[in-house]
Amino acid sequence: MTSRISSTRGQDGKWVYFSTSSREIAGMNDVYRVGAEGGTPMPVSADRYANEYWAAPAPNGGAIAITARGTTSGQWWRNGRSHLDESEIWILRDASAMRYERVSAGKSKDTWPMWTPDGRTLYYVSDRDGPQNIVRRSVGGEPAAVTKFTSGRVLWPTISTDGRMIAFERDFGIWSFDTANGKTA
User: Fold this and answer.
1) Counting beta carbons within 10 angstroms of the beta carbon of residue 164, is it exposed (0 to 12), middle (13 to 18) or buried (19 or more)?
2) How many Å apart are CA 16 and CA 184, to the nearest integer?
3) In this structure, are residues 44 and 95 in contact, taking their beta carbons and an 8 Å threshold?
4) Between 5 and 21, residue with greater pLDDT
5) Taking the model in full, what pTM does it have?
6) Distance separating alpha carbons of residues 138 and 57, to the nearest angstrom
7) Three-state DSSP class for 84?
8) CA 4 remoteness from chain centre
9) Which is nearest to 179 in space by CA: 117, 126, 108, 104?
10) Distance between CA atoms of 123 and 86, rounded to whole angstroms?
């Protein structure tokens, strides 16, 4: 069984979401959830032959943002991009009906979705305009880069519970982005 586990606990504390390739015939990742107290993992997003990983449940539990496609889950260290690791952000609105909404346009490496506490804005990392930067997209709005890096990598971001700060790795250091004033340090 091959499994790279990247897990996230939902805001309600009831579920832990994780990615694994253990049940995928093509060796691609699928997103599962398991009760915080344990139990049987249940598939959340398990399209055959499609890589789905790095899940971020919305605070209200009504949706789950995931990274999909590409080989980024296994090549997160790669600087730059090729067609093989181009990835997209999708939102699963209704797991029972498998109703997806595409958030990012593709032709870039879009990864690590993060919700604001009100569930109305999604942050993620994108290299759409060149170097990796953090992007903000309000529900129904257009994506806009909120950091302005001209080189380097943005890796492993996480948003604080109150949504005021995003911490991430960049050039072997720990950085922060203040979502209120837009300053990076």
Assistant:
1) middle
2) 30
3) yes
4) 21
5) 0.84
6) 16
7) helix
8) 15
9) 117
10) 18
Residue range 21-60, pLDDT digits in tens: 877 676 788 888 899 899 999 888 877 778 888 889 988 8
In this predicted model, what pLDDT tens digit does every residue of 152-185 receive, in sequence order?
A: 889 999 999 999 999 999 989 999 999 999 999 9
Q: Which two tokens stand for residue 62?
A: 């009504």
Burial of 121 (0-12, 13-18, 19+ CB in 10 A): middle
Q: Which residue has the tokens 């060149």?
A: 130
CA 65/CA 137 separation, integer angstroms: 12
> Which residues are bridge partners to 56 per DSSP?
65
Q: Which residues contact 32 (CB under 8 A, 6 or more apart)?
A: 17, 18, 19, 20, 41, 42, 43, 44, 46
Average pLDDT over residues 101-110: 85
The rounded Cα 152 to chain-centroid distance in angstroms is: 19
CA end-to-end span of the chain = 40
